[in-house]
Amino acid sequence: MRTLALTLFASLFIAGCFGSTIRPGQRAVKYSAFGGLQHDVRGEGFYFRWPWNGFIRYDVTWQSRTEEIEILSADALHVRTRVTVTYRPRADQIYELATQIGPTYYDEVIRPAFLTIARGEFAAHAHNALAVEGGQIEKRVLGQLRKAVKGKPIDIDRVSIDHIDFDKTVTGAIASKVSAEQLIGQKDNELEVAKRDADIARTLAAGRADSVRIEAQGEAEAMVARGDAQAKAQEAITKTLTTKYLSYKAFDNPSTRYYFVPVGKNGLPILIDAGQ
């Protein structure tokens, strides 16, 4: 067991002194104490080296850095923003990156250009338009930043505005204005509803009035029709109700009693004195 432990320790010691591991997502160039920086770019894996040599590693995955930028808007208002840039070095140009710039390529190349371009682009927009025009600002900063690093072994993926700390005085005034506009809009809606309710009430009243008028007109016409019918009936009766017809009806009735009164030539009844 002791021998196995010593062997394992010796292997780890040798590996630590005579080997280097390049992890996934990394690329590296080897530095030799006698030959300087080598051109070959090494991918992930374990590489043997002498203790006086080494590897310079670079992360070639997409990385993001967020910067807090103080800007002055087009209407001379101070605004604090947080803006993020996403970038990476080109995996096949690590040697150029190492010889031209080095591991501090973000601080030396990307960051200064990023801050300058972002300040200039924000300054072209008014305070109240920053939120609405944020997408345009991101696209313009991204395009200009790509131009700034053109020719260097660096890729810029995107620029995003994470936060805009608007001026509190201005935002308070805007909030008050929006609140007032909402209140006015609410009142307008209430007025519109009241107008519609009034229109509905007038329509219903007009409908009821029309109904009453039509009903009254119908009753009047019915009364006129009944009067006309009665008048016509009365006229017909008057034409047919003659003296002879009435005499006929009197004789025709079996329950009628008859009294005969003598009438003289002059049409006057003859009175007879029973005592003579």
Describe this structure in words.
The chain has 6 helices and 8 strands. With 276 residues, the chain is an alpha+beta fold. The longest helix has 73 residues, at 168-240. A 3-stranded antiparallel β-sheet has the order 3-2-5, with helices on one face. A 3-stranded antiparallel β-sheet has the order 6-7-8. It has a two-stranded antiparallel sheet with strand order 1-4. Strand 6 (63-72) and strand 7 form a beta hairpin. The model is unreliable at 4-16 (pLDDT under 50). It has helices at residues 2-18, 94-100, 105-122, 134-148, 168-240, 243-252; strands at 19-22, 26-32, 36-42, 45-48, 54-59, 63-72, 78-89, 154-165. Helix 3 (105-122) packs across helix 4 (134-148). Among the domains are: 15-59, no CATH class; 63-166, Tetrahydropterin Synthase, Chain A; 169-209.
SSE blueprint and pairings:
Elements: H1 2-18, E1 19-22, E2 26-32, E3 36-42, E4 45-48, E5 54-59, E6 63-72, E7 78-89, H2 94-100, H3 105-122, H4 134-148, E8 154-165, H5 168-240, H6 243-252
Antiparallel strand pairs: 1-4, 2-3, 2-5, 6-7, 7-8
